[in-house]
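Chapter review: from sequence to fold.
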Amino acid sequence: MYDLSQELQSMKPNRIRKHPAKATAKATVNATVTAAALASWVLVQSVSVPSIAVAQDVIPVVLHGEDNNKPYAFLNADGAPAGIYVRILQAAVDKMPQYDLRFENVPFKRGMDLLQSGQIMAFFPPYLRDDRNWVERYSVPILSETVVAICSKDYVLSHELRVFPDDFTGARFANNAGYRLAGEDFFDMVAAGEITLEEANTTESNLRFLMAGRVDCYVNERMAILAGLRELAVDKEQSRNIDETAIIGQEFGYVAFGYDPDGSWPYRDQFADDLDDVLRQMRDTGEIDQLVVEYFAY
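The token string follows.
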């Protein structure tokens, strides 16, 4: 089994002499020519400058992200957008001077609802799901994430847990509202009454449920769980009461782009194309990996 206590310990809390008067006539002519040239230059500039300014206009772009998905996308203590995805996307758009980026953070479920109804241009970082056919396009994959199930030590010791979710019949699970990380088979068992589900908006709330014995297990991404334990100041000894019992799968986080029914974002596809180009470069050069390392070393 994966040792959460060891991993928790390893995490460390994210510019020319003039001629005499006999040359007066010639000087007058030259002065006239010079004045005319100057006037012509001023006229050209007065016509050209506005067109240059228009060509260099910066497009304001708003990307919506989750507000409580540490360490990936959340609001920090000052209410400012933070997290690994925020750092990566900001670094990417910094290489795209034609855009002025601003982040807004909302709960996951609300963000997905806003995206589906065409009220926002983009939302990060959902996983790719076939049943979200209202998502018109995704960015290139940004980060690989590992989805796991963790359970209380008492539950693990009293059950044979070999296959997820089949061997978890009768278990009480915590889940972040709107998340479907546990997979369709799991939610089919929930619908059939074979698994009980309690939902809260944050990782920290669900971890509290687990540690208090209100639920038996919890599914989320591994680093999000570790960040939540750190946020709750769970020490190594306390973390020994929680075991990682199943690796459910590897997922990638994306920027998802929804419908634009009112034509509010005519630049959307160009922005998405430009973002993909830069993210590929950052991936290939190792910049994304470096940003992740720097985040956890902070």
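Two observations follow directly from the output. The CA atoms of residues 40 and 67 lie 56 Å apart. The radius of gyration is 28 Å.
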